[in-house]
Give the backbone structure.
Amino acid sequence: MSPNTVPLVFEGFGDPANPPLIILHGFFASARNWRQIAQQLAQRYHIYVVDQRNHGRSPHDPEMDYPSMARDLAGFMAEQGLERSTLLGHSMGGKVAMWFALNQPERVNKMIIVDIAPVSYQHSFNDLINALKKLPLPELNNRKDADCWLESAIPEASFRQFLLQNLVLDQGTFSWRINLDFFYQSAPHIIDFPDTNGMNYQHENVLFVVGGNSNYTDSNVVYGVFPNAEIKAIENAGHWLHVEKPGEFIEVVNSFLLKD
């Protein structure tokens, strides 16, 4: 590993003799959020679900942007002896996959980008991260306490439960598995995307799967960088389409993967 990469912890599914497929999760998520999808895709692929830097069980590092995470992916593939792989990335993970593919296209078999585009967004994570930082960890008796504390700042119950997967109990005391200071510092890089001026991915091996109720993906932006990409929408689904409509998501993904 070079000084600019961190070794990624991963979960493996399926027969190692099958073609590789690497799943890259989104911001605040981890490999555990993709286990059910991985198990279904493992019939034909050897699935690697990685914890990206500062997430899950992978090491923490103050630097978290798309060039650094793409280097982590390259280092992970080298560690696993993978010259090429199919990539599936959601949100932040999709941006990692896109930046990797734009810079090392020869290492990508197929690529599935889930509800994100190669663009910088305008939203902010500051309020969310500050709410998590204010959680009085020493006063918590259980996760229900944490859920109640966060309810006013984060009204959506399912999103609170997702975030609280990062809360760990050790010897009777709760702590965050993630480094919220690093997240706060890096959040502008997560909503950003590196300059793609002059960059173009001509291959036809790219699928963008988008939620019909989501506004994260602009087809004009996608085709500007990935002119031969295919875009498929899953209706009545938002940004977390793989959670909201897992059956339809798997169907769309498998249909794409089975194409020659």
